[in-house]
Inverse folding.
């Protein structure tokens, strides 16, 4: 049973990594539908990580060492995705300023909430 739970947690983390990778692959800042699709993938990856954490918490005698490499790789992918989104947001803000147009204000979930003038 112990090995089964660890494998399950590893599978959950692997699924999260696949979702983050797919979000990176499909990201297109010029298409709000693909941005929304990427956001959904990332939100589901967060849920996967929470599920993996619960799985590990339910079986504390489980050795999470096998997950460390996966989690490190996932952390690097998330950092890459963050830099990509930040760069796109910065470009949009800079372009708006350059053109004298109002910028867009985003909330913590990444949803556009209004124009900044």
């Amino acid at each position: 049973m112990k090995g089964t739970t660890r494998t399950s947690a590893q599978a959950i983390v692997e699924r999260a990594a696949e979702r983050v990778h797919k979000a990176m692959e499909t990201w297109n800042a010029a298409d709000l539908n693909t941005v929304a699709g990427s956001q959904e993938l990332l939100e589901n990856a967060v849920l996967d990580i929470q599920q993996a954490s619960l799985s590990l918490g339910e079986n504390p005698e489980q050795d999470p060492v096998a997950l460390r490499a996966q989690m490190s790789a996932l952390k690097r992918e998330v950092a890459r995705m963050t830099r990509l989104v930040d760069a796109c947001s910065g470009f949009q803000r800079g372009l708006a300023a350059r053109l004298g147009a109002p910028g867009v204000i985003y909330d913590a979930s990444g949803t556009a909430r209004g124009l900044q003038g």
In short: The longest helix spans residues 65-99. Residues 1-6 have pLDDT under 50 and may be disordered. The radius of gyration is 18 Å.
